[in-house]
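task queued by scheduler; priority normal; single chain, no ligands, no partner chains; default sampling; output format set to structure tokens
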Amino acid sequence: MITRILNENIKEYLQPGKAVLIMGPRQIGKTTLIETLAATEEHSLWLNGDDIDVRSRFENVSTSALKEMLAGYELVLIDEAQRISDIGLKLKMIVDNVKNIKVVASGSSSFDLANKVKESLAGRKWEFRMFPLSYSELAAHHGALDESRFLEKRLIYGSFPEVVTSPGREVRILSELIDSTLYKDILSLDGLRKPDKVVKLLQALALQLGSEVSYAELSRTVGLDLQTIEKYIDILEKCFVVFRLQSLSRNLRKELVKTRKIYFYDNGIRNSLINNFNLLNVRTDAGALWENFIMVERWKHISYSEIFCNCFFWRTHDQQEIDYIEEREGKLFAYEFKWNANRKSRFPAVFSKNYPESEFNVVNPENYTAFIS
């Protein structure tokens, strides 16, 4: 079994009086993680929100009933917690009223889980985001040298656990992942009246990978108004399909403002949406796949390592650009992502002039491991 970094991270935060929330897409390994955590406590109770009996036990439950249900346990773990009505209030009742018990809840959609618990659990929770397998996790399992040999596979098929552990069946597994992610988590949400438009929107985003995204252009392509486009992208982000990167603007005249790039949480999901699993040497989007891979691997590293920073890209009206910028420790760190290690990249003069204390680095296949692990 591939050891997940979150397993050790979460253990440090398990304590009575606060709930640990784990959020991430379906089939990412949350249930396996919960099984591992359950094995660390002799007296643990594992409940699954997909089970109708579990949901009925929490229906209109009182504090005294919760105390009786959890008596004798030191750890309660609730998988697919968003399926339980008023889950935020139920978790608050446990945290506030059941003595000496630790609580873990997981959900496949932050759209459901986070919205239902944030207000109720204010000051009573620790939140963790779970991603597809990271480079660090895979390198620890296979060895860094062997994992580096799989780089092209990761750019094409991504790193969902079942995809990684089932060589030869990647395309079929990704197709089923698309079905469960789109149709079970997204298209079933209230307010999504045009599911065909959501699929068309995702395909349009997949084809614009690595480019600045125009909501107006998406509106024309997909056939939805701007407000609906923004609403659907927000839902896709909360369901861990895509994430947005905003532009850096400090009111310099040439900088673009209110623009964004949109990346996919997994390269395999992106390629499955457009049904393109060709090898990199015959693709025109190898650079975009490299940029998406590096971006999401960096985000995994930032999240798991608890690095607190602001993240941007940068572009001017005259097309000077930087792929990625982190603001941390009172300083800007700028990065260019180059699939071709032989291509030179210069620090844009406008940027270096206006941000003289910033650092500039190029990330390519020869040095990327230090950036993402």
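post-processing summary
- The radius of gyration is 22 Å.
- The mean pLDDT is 90.
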